Amino acid sequence: MSYKLGSISLDCPETQNPGDSPSAAIINPTREAWDDPVTARVILTFTLPDYRYLCRLVQPSASPRYVYNCALREGRWGGRPITLTAPALGAPYAVMVLEKLMVLGARMVLALGWCGSLQSHLKIGDLVLPSTTVSTEGTSRHYPLDGQAPDPDPGLCGVLRQLLEASDHRWQEGPVWSTDGFYRETAQLVQAYQAQGVLGVDMEMAALFTVGRFRQVSVAGLLVVSDELATLQWKPGYRSERFRQARDQAARLVLAAAAEWDGDHV
User: Fold this and answer.
1) In Å, what is the CA distance from 73 to each residue of 55, 64, 107?
2) What is the span of the domain harbouring residue 188?
3) Count of the separate structural domains present in the chain
4) Nearest-CA neighbor of 109 among 262, 263, 219?
5) What is the pTM of this model?
6) Domain harbouring 199, CATH code
């Protein structure tokens, strides 16, 4: 018995159970005996500064524990229990952590990250609400969506949108490009995505949204513009006061969204 994966023909042993799918994973995320559960609401971050600022806001009482070397701590915001985790940098790592969080009880995951701006009107310190993604990272393709778009959960994204509309901060909503090649954001690629109206570039959102849809868990995200690429010259701004203030506001917005989320009446 054989089947095709791309252009490769694979022979499957005849001893395979008839009910097994050739595309079924051999290794699956599981809760081990030593794993403690997480809260239904999780905020996933990619840098330690963002995680530490969230911890200062939430004031967790217990010491951190770890999943794949990512710190986990629990606290409360708006009367709701919330788990904070970081630093899950890059799509493969972020998805490993996300998969584990979901089997430990996460039903809503909000990702707080940074992005480079591809559009001249989008400046350092502005906020970006990803409404869809363009993926050139390698993780998403392993989670087939059967025609679904790699978009955030609409309900959770809507909560973030309402909070942004009520804020006084500069923000834009639109597509984001996710890539593994941090040092291969070439002029040709930037110009191509600029022309398509893509707002910014990050490393994780496309994969996280894809896995959220694949596993039927609510996932959305909010990005802070940390640098600008629109002129095809790199303008970093992640050490600026404007960026820091925007990150602080974004952290409060994702906490508020997590507290307001009412998916599955959790």
Assistant:
1) 8, 5, 16
2) 35-265
3) 1
4) 219
5) 0.90
6) 3.40.50.1580
